[in-house]
Amino acid sequence: MPFTDKQNKLLEQKLEPQNIKQRSNGNFKLDYIEGWHAIAEANRIFGFDGWDRHTELAKLGEPQEVNRKWRVRFMATVTINVRANGDVITRQGIGYGDGIAGDMGAAFEGAIKEAETDAMKRALSTFGNQFGLALYDKDKANVGKNDTDPEAWGEKTGGDISKHMKAPTPTQEAIYNDLMDEVMAADNGDAIDVWLEQDETKKLAAKMTNEQKESLWAEIKHKRQAAA
Q1: Could you tell me if 97 and 73 are in contact, meaning their C-beta atoms sit under 8 angstroms apart?
Q2: Burial track 185-208 (b if 16+ CB lie within 10 A, e otherwise)
Q3: How far apart are CA 77 and CA 119, in angstroms?
Q4: CA-to-CA distance for 90 and 8, rounded, in angstroms?
Q5: Residue 225: helix, strand or coil by DSSP?
Q6: CA-angle at 170, arms to 43 and 22, nearest 5°
Q7: Phi, psi of 46 (to 5 degrees)
Q8: HEC string of 89-149?
């Protein structure tokens, strides 16, 4: 098999309850995992340089003005390539994004970000529970606590799992979202480099969890590759 025994063991684990979020969808609650968490899990299991993604976007109609705000809609197709023992495993996902804002540019950004994140999570979910597959089962049979096995975490963590078990606080989530928005809005790699060197950026980044930092760095890497 392409994956190592350690990777297979991680992929077979249950989805930890603290990694599940909820949002209202009409008259019921919808369980989901956040985009940053999916990226962090991909980095943890496949390695920082063990996977990449490619995004294709399709605008759905023209921007519409609704109640003095702009509404923009996009569909995204994300292709995930995972490199494992000389093989490349490819998965795809499709996502939808709906952006509404007073500024048209902000509406475009919101729609694109939502569509890409949704498509990425759908593609990654095909790799198992850690990427949200467990949530598609109404009985949630693969949601729960895992036995702690330091060896299963591999050499990337040195057996130290404590940093991966803490869910971000609301303040950390707000900081992460603000910094991610800055990355998404950057025009090119040079602009990102200038932004990273700012003292305020460093202070905010220091307050995030390790998973959030890994996720943000993965997005920066993707942005640089796309601009190259």
Answers
A1: yes
A2: ebeebeebeebbeeeeeeebbeeb
A3: 6
A4: 17
A5: helix
A6: 75
A7: -95, -20
A8: EEEEEEEEEEEEECCHHHHHHHHHHHHHHHHHHHHHHCCCHHHCHHHHCCCCCCECCCCCC
**CA–CA dist 208, 216 (Å, integer):** 10
Contact 108, 102 (CB under 8 A): no
Report how far apart, in Å, the C-alpha atoms of 133 and of each of 8, 33, 122, 158 are: 15, 10, 9, 27
Residues 6+ apart with CB under 8 A from 95: 75, 76, 78, 114, 115, 116, 117, 118, 119, 120, 121, 122
pLDDT by residue for the chain (228 residues), tens only, comes to 689 999 999 999 999 998 899 888 777 788 999 999 999 999 999 998 999 999 999 999 999 998 899 999 999 999 999 999 889 999 999 999 999 999 999 999 999 999 999 999 999 999 999 999 999 888 889 998 886 554 444 444 444 444 444 567 888 888 888 888 777 777 666 777 777 788 888 888 888 887 777 777 777 776 666 655
Q: Quote the DSSP letter at residue 171.
A: H
For tokens 């759905």, the residue is 60
